[in-house]
Amino acid sequence: MKPHNIQTMQDVQTFDAAHVHRLRLNTLIRLRWLAIFGQSAAVFAVGLWLQFPLPIGLCFALIAGSAWLNLFLAFRFPATKRLEPPAALGILTFDALQLAGLLYMTGGLTNPFAVLMAVPVVISATSLPLSFTMLLGMLVVTAASILAVFHMPLPWYPGTQLAMPFIYVSGVWLALVSSIAFTGVYAYRVAEEARLLATALSATELVLQREQHLSALDGLAAAAAHELGTPLATIALVAKEMERALGEDSRFREDVVLLRSQSERCREILKRLTNLSSEGEAHMARLPLTSLIEEVIAPHRDFGIRIKLEPGERKGPEPVGRRNPGVIYGLGNVVENAVDFARETVTIRWQWNDESVSLTVVDDGPGFSPELIDRIGEPYMTRRTTANAAGGGLGLGLFIAKTLLERSGAAITFTNAGEPGMGALVRIEWQRATFLPPPA
After folding, report:
1. 23 Cβ partners below 8 Å, 6+ apart?
2. Tell me: the pLDDT tens digits for 360-410?
3. How far is CA 94 from the centre of its chain?
4. What is d(CA 398, CA 424) in angstroms, rounded to the nearest whole number?
5. Does residue 171 sit in the same domain as residue 202?
6. If you compute the radius of gyration of the chain from its CA atoms, what whole number of angstroms results?
7. Phi/psi class of residue 316: alpha, beta or left (left: φ > 0; alpha: ψ in -120 to 50)?
8. What is the reported pLDDT for 432?
9. Are residues 42 and 163 in the same domain?
10. pLDDT digit string (tens) for 252-287?
11. What proportion of the chain, given as a percentage, has pLDDT over 70?
12. Same domain (yes/no): 270, 130
């Protein structure tokens, strides 16, 4: 179980490193076209419709520079290209500086559109590493600080100048910096949670695919035996006819007899495979609760932790459920977590009645810390202290276990035992009708 889990986590980390923090180029191109359209409309409205004095030529030169960059990127790279973080940071930096240039020529922070300087930082927070977002945020704050002092007059009616008090400009600067910080942190946290959830779900799907692949091997063996049966029967028939035609000819008789005997041997082997698969399928498809528990705990008996079994109340016949690779893997993750954090003993209790089937896993470790207990089952890579080590992983494995068990119809709860010498307690409960397979 442990090597299998480790390999799964390595595969997920490889997937995560290859796919996160990779912003699609086409997304930035479309956003920039939207900005170009909005900037052009604003310059036309202020300079040509309202007839306010402003350097229209310089403004359209900056807008044209942004449009030329868009055209270059659109023709140079495919629309599906995903940018490396440094390349995406460079493009967002250009957008921030281009907007700062337009604001410099149109009133600086007294321009109502100064709030748009927060947009590149928000985009960076949702798609780039935290260090890159902080670097871009500091650049934007520096540009805003310069624009608060140095800028051309705000376009206004000819012959008049709208002068804003410095305290007002200071308030706009403070509001802009606050909005950059707040929206950046908020967008980063939301995007990071989405990335963690997507990665954890990918790990869950990877586990299910592997378990289902192992379960399908029996069916593949039976199919191979069925497909090979016909050509082997043909070989045996031809060998028999050749043996009859050769009669007592000693030159080829031994070879033909050997060919016939080996073909018969192959047919016997395939027959045993077919019988084993059909017999094993009926036996393995249904799994009593006690057999399920034994199969789950078997890989964890040799790690220096005693696994104690305590059967509880048992009313009625033992429930026999359908073999479910997801349930076996999920329960295995719960037991593995308990063994990792236990000091000496892990206790497993089970019971059933006419209404429900339940399983409880309790360890004698430190238990779940109060700040983590409400978040258990979420895909966070958190840690809790053990008796033998500084900490251990807790998050993705339990998220996978929770997802797989809930998919089977179980309700799973994480608490602390509240018993002397006991730590964490995980309870899994099914309705008996859900645990039992439906009638054929």
Report:
1. 82, 83, 88, 123, 127, 128
2. 999 988 888 777 777 776 665 455 544 444 444 446 677 778 877 888 888
3. 32
4. 13
5. yes
6. 35
7. left
8. 84
9. yes
10. 777 777 887 887 777 777 776 665 544 444 455 677
11. 78
12. no
Residue range of the domain that includes 378? 301-435
Interatomic CA distance for residues 136 and 184, integer angstroms = 11
357, 368, 362: which is closest to 420 by C-alpha? 362
Specify whether 125 is located in the same domain as 248. no
Domain boundary pick from 258, 285, 312: 285
Cα atoms in the Cβ-side hemisphere of radius 13 Å centred on 33:
10
Q: Say how many CA atoms lie within 13 Å of 77 toward its Cβ.
A: 16
- Which of 209, 227, 262 terminates a domain? The answer is 209
What DSSP element (H or E) covers 431? strand 424-431
pLDDT higher than 80, residue 148: yes
Q: Do 341 and 360 sit in the same domain of this protein?
A: yes
- Number of structural domains, the chain? 3
Is the CB of residue 122 less than 8 Å from the CB of residue 179?
Answer: no
Percent above pLDDT 90 for the chain: 22
